[in-house]
């Protein structure tokens, strides 16, 4: 069984990807890295290919044709991780909003404290967000509150995208049934982890807005989440969440 794989989806992250790869490779735990690049026109994948020569066997790359969305990129990565036998599977952004040093804390929550899912959470104690415009902080905080209200799941940061899953979580969740692509994807993964009864921990982190490159967040992604969570909650009444 292999140990830990960090999945990072990328779209036009030329300014961040090399520093991110080097940072993860330098951590005091032998994380492996899987970049899922959606044919970034800025050549992100070429930079990764070049770095693979330096980190053989630890830096992996999957490329897809065109921008297909964050959710399907992660599903692609999760299947890769299951196929290749990793025990701890992480989600992280490429833009340094998530501090790679915190990978160690998420890893610890799952490998030593026995949690099935560890969430790098901005809203455990107050609001730990640096450099976001106030409008975006408020939107994110209210979004988390709204999702908690609709779904009833006891998680503060419901849209967080910095996570560690134990393998059995991704083996249990029916990955092919997930249709969401943006924030709603992150919400649904948490909702299903909760419904299937997995042990979830929120690890407090500080989230810092990117300083390089641009955000790919769109209005459509936001709209998907607003209606999506209601639909998700309603359909959950007609589903069974048995673990085998
Ligand atoms: N492969 C892939 N990666 C994406 C896509 N959209 C965003 N990303 C990556 O997902 C991460 C988070 O996106 P970002 O634009 O920072 O979203 P924000 O933090 O919500 O503004 C970054 O690493 C992006 O490069 C996509 O459609 N495909
Ligand atoms: Mg970002």
Automatic annotation (TrEMBL):
Organism: Pontibacter mucosus
Family per similarity comment: Belongs to the glycosyltransferase 2 family.
Keywords: Glycosyltransferase, Transferase
One GO molecular-function entry: dolichyl-phosphate beta-D-mannosyltransferase activity
Lineage, uppermost ranks: Bacteria, Pseudomonadati, Bacteroidota, Cytophagia, Cytophagales
Glycosyltransferase 2-like domain sequence ranges: 6-172
This protein's name: Dolichol-phosphate mannosyltransferase
GO cellular component terms, A-Z: membrane
Biological processes per GO annotation: glycolipid biosynthetic process
């Amino acid at each position: 069984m292999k140990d830990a794989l960090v999945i990072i989806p990328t779209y036009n992250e030329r300014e961040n990807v090399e520093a991110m790869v080097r940072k993860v490779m330098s951590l005091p735990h032998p994380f492996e890295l899987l970049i899922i690049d959606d044919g970034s026109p800025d050549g992100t994948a070429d930079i990764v290919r070049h770095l693979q020569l330096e980190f053989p066997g630890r830096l992996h790359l999957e490329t897809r044709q065109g921008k297909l969305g964050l959710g399907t990129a992660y599903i692609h990565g999760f299947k890769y991780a299951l196929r290749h036998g990793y025990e701890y599977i992480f989600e992280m952004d490429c833009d340094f909003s998530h501090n790679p040093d915190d990978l160690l804390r998420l890893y610890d929550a799952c490998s030593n404290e026995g949690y099935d899912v560890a969430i790098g959470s901005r809203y455990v104690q107050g609001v730990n967000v640096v450099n976001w415009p106030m409008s975006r902080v408020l939107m994110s905080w209210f979004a988390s509150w709204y999702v908690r209200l609709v779904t009833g799941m006891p998680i503060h940061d419901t849209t967080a995208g910095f996570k560690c899953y134990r393998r059995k979580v991704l083996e249990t969740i029916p990955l092919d049934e997930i249709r969401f692509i943006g924030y709603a994807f992150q919400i649904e993964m948490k909702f299903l982890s909760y419904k299937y009864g997995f042990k979830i921990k929120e690890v407090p982190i500080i989230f810092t807005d990117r300083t390089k490159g641009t955000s790919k967040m769109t209005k459509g992604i936001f709209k998907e989440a607003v209606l999506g969570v209601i639909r998700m909650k309603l359909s959950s009444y007609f589903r069974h969440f048995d673990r085998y």
